[in-house]
Amino acid sequence: MKIRFAIVGCGSIGKRHLAVIDAESMAEVVAICDIEENRVRELSELYNGVPWFTDYNTMLSEINADVVNVVTPHFFHKQHSIQALHKGFHVLVEKPMALSVKDCREMIAAAATAKKKLWVVKQNRHNVPVRLAQEAIREGRLGKIFMIKCDILWNRYQGYYDESDWRGKIEKEGGALFTQASHFIDLLVWWCGDITGVKAITETQNHNIETEDSGVAILHFSSGTIGSLVWTTCVYHKNFEGSITVIGERGTIKIGGQYLNKMEFWDVEGFELPQGIDFNDKPNSYGKYQGTSSNHDKVIKAVVGVLNDQSAEVVEGLEGLRSIDAIEKIYSNIRQ
Ligand SMILES: NC(=O)c1ccc[n+]([C@@H]2O[C@H](COP(=O)([O-])OP(=O)(O)OC[C@H]3O[C@@H](n4cnc5c(N)ncnc54)[C@H](O)[C@@H]3O)[C@@H](O)[C@H]2O)c1
Question: pLDDT at position 293, please?
Answer without folding.
Answer: 66
